[in-house]
UniProtKB/TrEMBL annotation, chain A:
Segments forming domain Endonuclease GajA/Old nuclease/RecF-like AAA: 1-52
Regions annotated as coiled coil: 194-283, 542-576
Region listing for Disordered, in residue ranges: 152-171
Keyword line: Coiled coil
Protein name: AAA family ATPase
Pfam families (UniProt xref): AAA_15
Taxonomic classification: Bacteria, Bacillati, Actinomycetota, Actinomycetes, Actinomycetales
Keyword Coiled coil: yes
Automatic annotation (TrEMBL), chain B:
Organism: Flaviflexus equikiangi
SUPFAM superfamilies with a match to the protein in the record: Metallo-dependent phosphatases
Family membership noted in the UniProt record: Belongs to the SbcD family.
Protein name: Nuclease SbcCD subunit D
Domain Calcineurin-like phosphoesterase as annotated: residue spans: 5-201
Keywords from the UniProt entry: Exonuclease, Hydrolase, Nuclease
InterPro entries for this protein: Calcineurin-like_PHP, DNA_Repair-Maintenance_Comp, Metallo-depent_PP-like, Mre11_N, UCP033093_metalloPase
Family annotation (Gene3D superfamilies): 3.60.21.10
């Protein structure tokens, strides 16, 4: 597509503007705000919005305050056609498409028809390329503006030899990826559908293992039961064999048993006769024993009687000696009592004598004590308390009054009354006899002098004297109160009273000390108690005779010692007599018992002999002994016969075998019981359920495994398909990236004048980085100027590759503002040297920047 | 000796399950194995048979539910003929045996279990000599041991046994192989008039005596059985043995082997499926080999998918399946791939041709996804 001309009227700030473009490079210059960018927008809106559009975008294009419709007209070549396309919006709407050249030359379409025809024309254009080929002021400097351009890819495909992606590969890839996504995670690990299928297999296998285990247990139980039953059958057969053998042995043992019975009977007879012999022997022995017992008893009686006599004879002298000793003790005790009494009387006498002396002493002390107590009481009663402190106080007051009076008198008026006789006057209401001296005193206070019946005069002191007088009155009153409180009429009285009180108090103290000394450390109560006790002692009725206490005491002790000695002798004698008497009593008892024993033995012997004589017993023993000999002979004969016939072994074998058979029966019984138990266990099992569970588990494993395998096959197929597609896509992309990289490299080396310039291009044709002197700088890390230069070069490289049919104008709006002068010139040189079918339209406010483009068409707005 | 006719059947294996059957098909399969007992009864009446012998493996295992056992007995009762059941290796006597279970208390009067070795009188002139199994692993020839105990008799004597004749089993090491020569000798000597065998699931007649036979199972149990279930109608008349094979089963196991390399082959495979009758009771195992275009492979998938709705079961015998998908010109034209997609397809084709199964699957996926573009 090539833009030939663009006419804009009433569009934003543009009233009317028309630009004609060159097929090569056109530089449209004009100062800022003149509407360069609006020209590009106007062309875009011409293609995009119908004339009846009510879009805000269109409405905003209407010039402010003017009722005119924005209008755009463009003439451009697209494919084989050259058309003029005009549109007016809002007011006097109009759409006209005129075919100027090409197959439909001369055709003019209007309104919707024109719009549709224009859209159809435009649909043949690679709109991605159209959008990407412009670099507008302020737009982002993107690293990958061209990845969606089919025109570029077609061009690269052609350059790479026809290997690029076609229209079907892309959607196919998407479907394959979607299919793979069904089975795998984005990182291509097993997805939920595969994991779940695997889990189902695991679960089914676990169930099968459990079911198999249950079934195996069942089988094991049946096998065990079979084994038990086989054992039981074997044991039963063995038992039957052994029972047959036992029957044979029983027959032989029966005969031996008969012989043994006869022997046992004979043996029993021997044992019976042996008991008879023993019985007869016992009777004979008993008779002999009885006779011996009589003899022994009689001898013992004789011996005991002798002993009794000896003991009686030894006792008599001891009894006589005991009496003497008892008499001696009685005499001694009588003497002792008399001495004891005399001693007690003498001691009582001595105690009373001492008590009497003490009584006298205590009585004297108490009398003195009482006298002193009386004195003290009297003194205490006469003692009038007088305080020395009060005395000091009144003396002080008296002194203060005297001082005050002296002071008052000194400054006060005086009254002097001279006696003219001995009249009686009344001073302040009190009759006063006026002596010879009359009256001379200071007037300290108001004073009334009355001569009764004649005159009454009042002398009034001055003001100051009155005040002193009141203080004097107060002190006097205080003095009077203090004296009254002590019961004194004057200070001298009080002094006397204080002196008397202090002397009385000292005397009282001395009396009290004397009284304490009189008590000699005891209290009066103790002395009085002692006095009572002593009187009681003296009033006792006991006899009290004066005697030699020491001599009496000595005598008393002597007698006690002698009595103790004789008491020991007496005790010894009494013990001996008691002992002898006990022995004698025992001996006497024994004699009596022995006499009874002799009598009993004699009676027993006589009774036995009455029943059977001694001779008869002897005969009976002899006969029994003979019978025993005969019976023993018979036993020996039968035993010899038993041994000779082997009967013992037969019987033993039979018994042992019988026991063996019983054991076998017991074992068989146990085994049969085991079989019964196992059978019961087997019967109680839900065998069909176990089998059913197993069958089902087997089916589940089969199904789950098949499902999992099927899913895995499909998943693997999807993954393989995806992998192979991706691999080839990647290889293809690498092939068609190369021409693009070559074109960009060429422009870059020209611009940077550096043969090391290269670019790194991703599969989506985005420029991810730039190499310069071997250093790779990611696109996003480049400076703004470098990114702007790279963005221009990317568009120029693209324009150099696309076919003329696919070519679209490269629009550069106010670019290269960030480039230094050197780079600016080189980029402009690259633009000028570019051999391309693409139109290049540069909008700029600085025409000077592009002065190097000598062949460019220049349009000033 | 009077003539006697009876039905020889075996290996009913009632309660058998097959892992390749869905629940629905399994239920029908289980039901059919019981229902075919009635068919045997009808056959017996139509053939004038006096009784039916089942030569072992009546039940699949000892753990059947009471319901399964009782339903089987009910079907047996409906035959109104004496039926003699021999315990085999699947249902031996002994501890835990299915024959001692509670369900057998409902055994109908016309059913006799041959539960011990030796003769069972069928009639005054006919006796059955039974060789039941007491254990799954007897460790010896389970049939011929009894011959030494047999005395010549005027009765018609039928030996009912279960085991593998040594002439039919390549596993000569097996301890339980049956001595064919001994049986043939017994037949030739007139000690036994007929040997009704079970265990081998084939309908087979001894080419030397004509009297030592397998009846085959009444309903097919696996792909190795090439027909529907069979039973033998046997008539013994003096020394003459007449056996007639009857196909009585409904279920069929079929293997379809086909080399498929074109749409024409797919069509032939379709006709293979179409030729099978009673599809709802047919279990088809496919053994497919060949190289298919993507379109043909897709068509094959569609065909097989469609058959799964018709047949009781259709499944691949994976071990023997060898299909390679290789795109042809038509595929490429249909897909119209170019660019890297076309290159990817070329690589996958090469991998598939080398036998890479995943590459074949990937091509089919490419076909499916690409064809929708």
């Amino acid at each position: 597509m090539k833009l030939q001309s663009l006419r804009v009227k009433n569009f934003r700030g543009i009233t009317k503007q028309e630009v004609t473009f060159d097929d090569g490079v056109t530089i449209v210059s004009g100062h800022n705000e003149i509407g360069k960018s609006s020209l590009i927008d106007a062309f875009d809106y011409l293609l995009k919005f119908k004339d009846n559009s009510n879009s805000q975008i269109i409405r905003s294009c209407q010039p402010v305050g003017r009722d005119v419709g924005p209008e755009v007209e463009a003439t451009f070549r697209i494919g084989p056609e050259v058309v003029t396309y005009r549109k007016r919006w809002i007011s006097a709407r109009e759409t006209v498409l005129s075919f100027v050249e090409g197959p439909r030359r001369g055709t003019t379409l209007k309104s919707g028809q024109a719009h549709e025809a224009a859209e159809e024309l435009w649909s043949n254009l690679d709109t991605h390329l159209w959008e990407a080929s412009r670099l507008m002021q302020g737009s982002a400097l993107s690293r990958s503006p061209l990845s969606a351009s089919t025109a570029l890819q077609r061009a690269l495909d052609e350059q790479a030899g026809g290997t690029s992606e076609d229209g079907t590969s892309g959607p196919l890839m998407e479907r394959v990826t979607a299919e793979a996504n069904r089975y795998y995670t984005p990182t291509r690990n097993d997805g939920k559908i595969l994991v779940d299928a695997g889990k189902r297999v695991t679960v089914a296998e676990e169930k099968l293992a459990n079911a198999q285990a249950e079934k195996d247990k069942l089988t094991a139980l049946i096998d065990e039961l079979a084994s038990l039953e086989a054992d039981a059958a074997d044991r039963k057969a063995n038992l039957e064999d052994q029972e047959a053998t036992l029957a044979e042995l029983a027959e032989q043992a029966e005969k031996a048993q008969a012989l043994q019975s006869a022997r046992e009977d004979a043996q029993k007879l021997v044992e019976s006769i042996e008991r008879d012999v023993a019985d007869a022997s016992e009777k004979v022995a008993r008779r002999e024993h009885l006779a011996e017992a009589v003899t022994t008893a009689e001898e013992a009686l004789t011996e005991l009687s002798g002993t009794e006599k000896t003991q009686s004879e030894a006792l008599a002298p001891l009894v006589a000696s005991l009496t003497d000793t008892q008499d001696k003790i009685a005499g001694l005790k009588s003497d002792l009592a008399a001495v004891k009494k005399a001693l007690e009387s003498a001691r009582e006498f001595e105690r009373r004598t001492a008590a009497r002396l003490e009584l006298d002493r205590v009585t004297t002390l108490l009398a003195d004590y009482d006298t002193l107590s009386t004195d003290i009481a009297e003194l205490e009663g006469a003692l009038v308390p007088a305080s020395s402190e009060s005395l000091e106080r009144v003396v002080d007051l008296e002194r203060d009054i005297a001082l005050a009076e002296a002071a008052a008198s000194a400054g006060a008026a005086r009254i002097r009354i001279t006696s003219l006789g001995a009249p009686t006057i009344v001073l302040d209401g009190e009759e006063t006899a006026l002596g010879d001296d009359g009256l001379d005193r200071a007037v300290l206070e108001e004073l009334t002098v009355e001569i009764p019946g004649m005159v009454s005069m009042t002398v009034v002191p001055d003001q100051d004297a009155d005040s002193n007088s009141r203080e004097l009155v107060r002190m006097r009153a205080e003095l009077s109160q203090a004296l009254a409180a002590e019961g004194a009429s004057s200070v001298a009285d009080l002094k006397t009273a204080v002196t008397a009180y202090e002397e009385g108090t000292a005397k009282l103290s001395r009396l009290r000390e004397r009284r304490i000394d009189k008590l000699q450390g005891s209290s009066a109560e103790q002395l009085r108690d002692n006095l009572v006790r002593l009187k009681a002692v003296l009033s006792k009725p006991e006899e009290a005779v004066e005697g030699d206490i020491d001599a009496l005491t000595e005598r008393h002790e002597s007698l006690e010692a002698e009595i103790a000695t004789v008491d020991e002798i007496l005790s010894d004698q009494q013990n001996r007599i008691s002992s002898l008497r006990t022995e004698l009593a025992a001996t006497t008892g024994q004699v009596m018992n022995q006499r009874l024993a002799v009598t009993r033995a004699q009676a027993d012997l006589e009774t036995e002999r009455a029943a059977a004589t001694d001779e008869a017993l002897g005969e009976s023993l002899k006969a029994a002994t003979m019978r025993l000999t005969e019976a023993k002979d018979k036993v020996e004969s039968l035993e010899a016969e038993l041994v000779r016939s082997g009967g013992h072994a037969l019987i033993t074998d039979y018994e042992l075998h019988k026991k063996h058979v019983e054991g076998l029966r017991s074992l068989l019984s146990e085994k049969t019981s085991d079989v019964r138990v196992k059978r019961h266990v087997l019967e109680t099992l839900q065998r069909d359920a176990i089998q059913l569970a197993f069958d089902r588990a087997l089916s589940e494993v089969e199904y789950a495994t098949a499902e999992r395998d099927s899913l895995q096959s499909r998943a693997l197929a999807a993954k393989l398909l995806e992998d192979v597609l991706k691999k080839h896509k990647s290889e293809t992309q690498r092939k068609y990236i190369e021409p693009f990289r070559g074109a960009l490299q060429k422009l870059g080396r020209l611009t940077y004048q550096n043969p090391t310039f290269d670019v790194e291009i991703a599969d989506d044709l985005s420029v991810s980085g730039r190499f310069l002197d071997g250093d790779l700088i990611p696109f996003d890390d480049l400076s703004t100027g470098a990114r702007e230069q790279m963005s221009i070069l990317i568009r120029l490289a693209t324009a150099s590759l696309v076919s003329p049919d696919d070519a679209v104008p490269v629009l550069l709006d106010d670019t290269l503002g960030y480039s230094d002068r050197l780079k600016l010139h080189r980029v402009i040189d690259a633009i000028g040297s570019l051999k391309t079918a693409s139109q290049i339209i540069i909008f700029t406010a600085n025409e000077d920047r592009f002065a190097g483009l000598s062949r460019a068409r220049r349009v000033s707005l | 000796m009077t003539s006697v006719t009876f039905i020889h059947s075996a290996d009913w294996q009632l309660g058998m399950t097959r892992k390749y059957l869905s629940d629905e098909a399994q239920a029908r399969y289980t039901g059919a194995r019981v229902d075919t007992i009635r068919t045997i009864g009808e056959l017996a009446h139509s053939e004038g048979a006096q009784f039916i012998v089942v030569a072992g493996d009546v039940f699949e295992h000892a753990n059947l539910s009471t319901r399964d056992v009782v339903r089987a007995y009910e079907a047996m009762a409906e035959t109104r003929l004496p039926i003699y059941l021999l315990p085999g290796n699947h249902d031996p006597l002994g501890p835990g045996s299915i024959w001692s279970g509670e369900a057998h208390s409902s055994r109908p009067d016309n059913v006799t279990i041959l539960d011990h070795e030796g003769p069972f009188d069928v009639s005054p002139s006919v006796e059955i000599v039974a060789c039941p199994w007491y254990t799954k692993h007897p460790g010896h020839d389970p049939v011929t041991g009894i011959l030494a105990s047999l005395k010549p008799t005027d009765k018609t004597r039928i030996l009912v046994a279960h085991g593998m004749l040594d002439v039919l089993d390549p596993d000569k090491q097996s301890e339980t192989l049956v001595d064919t020569a001994a049986l043939r000798g017994a037949v030739r000597d007139g000690l036994v008039d007929y040997v009704a065998l079970g265990d081998r699931h084939i309908c087979w007649t001894d080419p030397e005596t004509g009297a030592i036979n397998y009846s085959g199972t009444h309903e097919s149990t696996g792909p190795r059985e090439k027909s529907r279930g069979t039973a033998l109608a046997v008539t013994l008349d003096g020394s003459t043995v007449t056996t007639t094979r009857h196909e009585i089963g409904r279920w069929l196991h079929v293997d379809i082997h086909r080399h498929v390399s074109s749409m024409e082959d797919i069509a032939l495979l379709e006709s293979d499926f179409a030729s099978i009758t009673h599809k709802d009771c047919a279990i088809v195992r496919t053994v497919l080999t060949g190289t298919l275009s993507m379109a043909a492979a897709a068509a094959l998938d569609r065909l097989l998918e469609a058959q799964t709705h018709v047949f009781a079961s259709v499944y691949k015998w994976e071990r023997h399946t060898d299909l390679v998908v290789v795109p042809d010109d038509a595929d490429e034209s249909l897909l119209g791939l170019s660019g890297f997609a076309a290159e990817a397809m070329a690589e996958l084709r090469e991998l598939a041709q080398q036998g890479d199964k995943t590459a074949s699957d990937a091509l089919l996926l490419l076909y499916r996804l690409g064809a929708t573009s």
